[in-house]
Known about the structure:
alpha/beta, ABC transporter transmembrane region fold, six-stranded mixed β-sheet, four-stranded antiparallel β-sheet, 18 helices, 12 strands, 11% strand, elongated
Amino acid sequence: MATKPEVQAWLLPQVSDSLETIPTKGMPMRSFSQPAHSGPRNDMQTIRSLLPFLWQHKPRVAAALACLILAKAAIVTMPWLLKDIIDQLSATNIALTLPLALLVGYGALRLTSSAFSELRDAIFAKVTQSSIRSVALQVFKHLHGLSLRFHLQRQTGGISRDIERGSRGISFLLNFMLFNILPTLLEIGLVTAILYINYDAWFAIITFVSIGLYVSFSLIVTEWRMRFRRTMNELDSKANTRAIDSLLNYETVKYFCNEDYEAKRYDANLEKWQSAAIKNQTSLSLLNFGQGSIIAIGMTLLLILASDGVAKGEMTIGDLVLINAYLLQLFMPLNFLGFVYREIKNSLTDMEKMFSLLRNNPDVQDHADAQPLEIDNGAVRFENVDFGYDDNRQILHNVSFEIPAGKKVAVVGHSGAGKSTLSRLLFRFYEINAGRILVDDQDINKTTQKSLRAAIGIVPQDTVLFNDTIHYNIAYGRPDATEADIISAAKTAHIHDFVTSLPDGYETTVGERGLKLSGGEKQRIAIARTVLKDPCILIFDEATSALDSKSEQAILKELREVAKNRTTLVIAHRLSTIIDADQILVMDQGRIIERGTHRQLLNKDGSYAQMWALQQQKSPAGQNTCDNPDGV
């Protein structure tokens, strides 16, 4: 038994306990690991979570088990033929008694065993891969079903590693549990019974005691070693999360010349991981030595007992060969069983961590009697809405306003006033604490989330694109859109000319989070995507914040055209972009302190007028936005 390092995808090497013994064909080796786990772990609950995916393929499971039994029966029968062959060859008239039938039978049994083993793997392959696919898809869909609160708190690197390890754990568990542990236990029972029935009881006693000591020793030491594996994999997940976070923020690292700082933070985890890995290796050596000692002592005692029987004439040479063959058949998989047990424990832990994601319930769920939102004209109304992200952080206080169908309402205020929270609540990413939000007089709390969100389009301030083509990112607004629709949306967002000027046009890849594009280009793609969705309710959350003045004026003009006859909520910082709004709400510390049109608010000479005056002082000289409502 030995330990071989394997290189992980995210820079951190990870050690897996492995044997020099070649594993059974069809049972893939992997870098086994287990995530840190807090609290009690229920292996049976993890297995029960997997069973429904297996029961979808009951006929295949049954057929694979039948092949397993037939293969094992052939293996157990072979030593008996070998015994008869040896006994006949030991006779004096060897030339007259050449056991051709036995030799052919022995070869046929070996071929039968191999054939049923391969057939078993072929039949069960679909069960394994289909189960992995089904579980991975369910976890993926469930993660998308969880609330925004969960995703704001998650560590993407850690979750991706949990899913990766859990999926691989399913493959390992299914193959080794069904095709190594079960047949090995079956063979142990058959061999022990054969030895007890046909030979001295001591053969069965020594075999049973050796197996019992081996299993007990493996269980005790493996449980003790698990703490080192848990520490290793906790540090592995932390390092993976830290590496991903650092690389995703590559530009920020470069801005502040913190490459060495990031390397030191990463190496701090590596140093702790190295210490845990050394302890893991030394404890593995202890386990392997103890297992080898038990096997060696058991085999030696049995061979001494068999040799003594031959010397006394109570047993033949064939009996000695039979017992030796059984010992080899028994202890070789038993030796491998120690490794399999350790890795099954790891796989169960990996799977439990992945299945635990499925036990995260979304904060926002459709009510049992929720109905699809029926859109008439898209009027929106907030009625006495209170909201806080937690009990100690109240964001909105008794907020009430209405956006009549086809009208534009703008919300302004200092950072932290609660402006963007309004859009999140309208999308129902969170449940409000009090009050109601209505769309066409329908409480969104009583409608399905899918139908609600299908009716709303948003252009966010921080636009994040998929690492795919420009065509894909625009088409994401409506995946079944025609090419003409996509180009039309791109023209509306004033991005078409730029795209066609690129060597690859609409097939240009935008890079991770769209980093290959400028902020303005990304935002125009986001606008095109929303235009393509063609919602009846629009939200512009600082939609032109990344644009220069010329581009901003062009897009504002197009956005006004897009917003015609649509209910529009504009969240703005630059007041010059919303002076044409039908109503402007001024928020401060989660409360609406002023409301009215641009001219009405200026005449009040309140907070809005002060913000306007401050921004006018920063405007280019000679530019009077008040007299030019359509421009800065």
